[in-house]
Known about the structure:
Blueprint: H1 9-18, E1 44-45, E2 50-58, H2 72-78, H3 103-106, E3 111-118, E4 129-138, E5 147-155, H4 161-173, E6 182-185, H5 188-202, E7 212-214, H6 216-223, H7 232-240, H8 253-262, H9 270-301, H10 303-310, H11 314-327, H12 345-358, H13 362-374, H14 378-389, H15 407-425, H16 428-439, H17 456-471, H18 487-496
Parallel strand pairs: 3-6, 6-7
Antiparallel strand pairs: 1-2, 2-5, 3-4, 4-5
Helix pairs in contact: 2-9, 7-9, 8-9, 9-10, 11-12, 12-13, 13-14, 13-15, 14-15, 15-16, 15-18, 16-17
Amino acid sequence: MPSPFSRNFRARLERIRTSAGTRGAAPEGPEAALPEPPSPPGWTPGGYQVLRRTVTLPFDLPAPPPGERAGPGDLSLLIPGLAALEGEAAGPPEKDPPPPLPLWPRLAGRLLFFDLETTGLSGGAGTVAFLAALGRFGGPAGGAGASLEITQFLLLDYPGEADFLEGILAFLREPASPGPPILVTYNGKTFDYPLLKTRCLMNGLPLPLLPQADLLHPARRLWKRVLPDCSQATIEREVLGLDRAGDIPGALAPEIWFAFLRAGGKFDGPRGRELLNIAGHNIRDIAGLAALFRVFLEIAAAPLEAVRRFNCDGENLALCYRTALRRGEVPAAGMEGNPQDGPGGRETAALRLLEAAAAVYPRSCLRLGFEYLRRGRLEEGRAALRRAAGPLPGGPGDASWRVPPGLVPRALALRALALDAVKRLGRRDLALALVERALALEGEAPPGQAGGALPRGLREDLEKRRRRLAGGEERSGGGKEGGGGGGEAAEEGQTGEGGGAGKEGAAVKRPFGPPVGPPLGP
């Protein structure tokens, strides 16, 4: 059977030569007399060798809680791609600016969910996109009649690529209130958008520069340690509860499109039906992407409930808000705390989030101990540090951690307890025992286990303290409960929150941004 690439080759070349400025017009030559192949149900011609259709799905959008600020500042903590939107302003700053508009419809009308199906995953110049889906919200946010409108473009053969791309670009150029469209993708910044840019460049078409929100990296922060992997299918199944039973895997898309071309580009056979099933898979990708964005919106609106509702990584979520609160970057709803907490309600709510994470994550337990000591809750701080340090002589046994405690958090907890013993309790003998216990942790790691050695800086610090304590040189800063308040700040500044040696960050690696200054809370 002759290949579709060689059939009517001269006519194809002639059409390409004469198509400048007349894309979409009927070709001249021997093919002009041929009837147009019938389109499958629901699809209409969208250019030469291009089909188009629009599918509308019901989609519930959460309304912003009354009296709460649910603006992009919330989502930008979870989705860094939205951070630039915080600086958008309609005019010069006002003396008494009005309260920020709620997220919906301020942002909902600008979101454009985008996904491509391609002939390969390499992303090189030889990879072509043959199916594109673009979805946007319709109807009122948080009210009856909300929907997700998805428009698809399907390329039937290589010569129609220019029309295929122009159909996509027409969507991207459409103005969206109150700003340009925001592309929402899953790994789109790495794959889909660069591929689209390459194909537009090769066809001489300008691609507008648009803000992007890639949900892959935020999803990894919240579910990498919870789920087997962070593929969109796994997120949909385990977090969103979506059922993809009977769906064709996206990995088969290239093979199915090539088989469709080899079969002559007809939809009345099995190859055509398989290609339409890939189009259905593409619709599900957009619907799942919109549902995942809604989950991020709900997490931002009520982070204290997110760990239970969405089975996300409580530690990374707690540290995300804790860091942002210290920088003064949280205008978020759901972080106000209880009314009886007073002006520090948001800080108290963030502390509760950290307490929930400390129940199952050793690094959060370590940070919680630091936080308690800063706030003067000494007994609670010591208890958290003892738990983070693991079993001590006469102390409680190890808890069941979701993530096994590493040597660095345990050594830091013992170091903080030793510092507290000198500064507040005047117990140099106890401090020496704690420092020696921290140094002995290296011998407890199984042979060949990664991270079996303490970072060099931390080990040298502990050895220096042991020599001072053994020689009576360690200075006591307090001797009384409540004295030596700067001890934890110095300890955390040296090896905890901003350190940089060893796998765990020479002490505790912070997943969101550089070290911060003032302590959380009063």
